[in-house]
Amino acid sequence: MSDAPTFSASTWGPQGRVTVGVHCGSDSSRTRYVQATVSAVVRHLVASQPIEPGQRIDAMALDWQQTDISRLRRGYLDDPAEAAGMVATRRIPPGTTLTESMVRKPWMVKRGDTVVLTAVGQGFSVSRNVEALDNGGLGSTIRLKTENNQILQGRVTGQDRLRVDF
C-alpha cells in the first residue's frame, strides 16, 4: 500500500490515531490491522487585524484560515454572517480563530434606559414606557420594570423597543 487512503464522512467520527482493519487481496477473510491518523481540515474565520472589546466587527476585520479540526477545541465560526456586524466581547489579536463566545449582538436596549414596551394580544396593542433591567440585542429576552414596579420579560424588537405577547 503506497498511497495513504482518503476518508470523507458526513459526520465527525473518530479523530487522531485509530486502528483500522484492512482486507487485502482476494482472501477477504484475512484482516490486517494498521494504525492510521484521522483528521479533517475546516475553513474558519480569523481576525485579520486587532479587534478591541466593544468594537463592532466588519468584514474588513475578517479573514479565512484552514486548520485541522482537532486544533479547534473551543469551536469556530465559519460564516461571515455570524461575525460581521457583531460586537467583540474581548480583545481579539490578529490571526485568532473567532468563536461564538468572542462576539455578541449589538445592544439595542441598555440597562437602566427608558424604553417602549408594546403588549400585543388578539385584537389589541398597548404601548407604554418601562425601564430596561438588562442589556439586550435584537431578538433577546430581557427583564423590564413597569411604572408600578412589576417585573416582566420582553423580547427586543428594535432600538429601545420591547414586545410582550399575550
Reconstruct the topology from this structure.
Elements: E1 16-23, E2 31-38, E3 41-47, E4 62-68, E5 87-88, E6 103-104, E7 114-121, E8 124-132, E9 141-145, E10 151-158, E11 161-165
Parallel strand pairs: 7-11
Antiparallel strand pairs: 1-2, 3-4, 5-6, 7-8, 8-9, 9-10, 10-11
Features:
single chain, 166 residues, mainly beta, Type Iii Antifreeze Protein Isoform Hplc 12, SH3 type barrels, 5-stranded mixed beta barrel, two-stranded antiparallel ribbon, 42% strand, disordered N terminus
**Tally of strands:** 11
| End-to-end distance | 68 Å
Largest sheet: 5 strands, mixed, barrel
- What best-fitting shape do the alpha-carbon axes yield? elongated
The helix fraction, in percent, is under 10%
Name of the CATH first level of the domain at 41-104:
Alpha Beta
Tell me the CATH superfamily of the domain at 41-104: Antifreeze-like/N-acetylneuraminic acid synthase C-terminal domain
Uncertain residue segments: 1-11
Briefly note the structural class of the backbone.
mainly beta
Number of helical segments with 4 or more residues:
0
List the secondary-structure elements in sequence, H or E: EEEEEEEEEEE
CATH arch. level architecture of the domain at 41-104: Alpha-Beta Complex
Structure commentary:
The chain has 166 residues and is mostly beta strands. Among the domains are: 64 residues, Antifreeze-like/N-acetylneuraminic acid synthase C-terminal domain (Type Iii Antifreeze Protein Isoform Hplc 12); 52 residues, SH3 type barrels (Roll), CATH 2.30.30. Helices cover 0% and strands 42% of the residues. It has a 5-stranded mixed barrel with strand order 7-8-9-10-11.
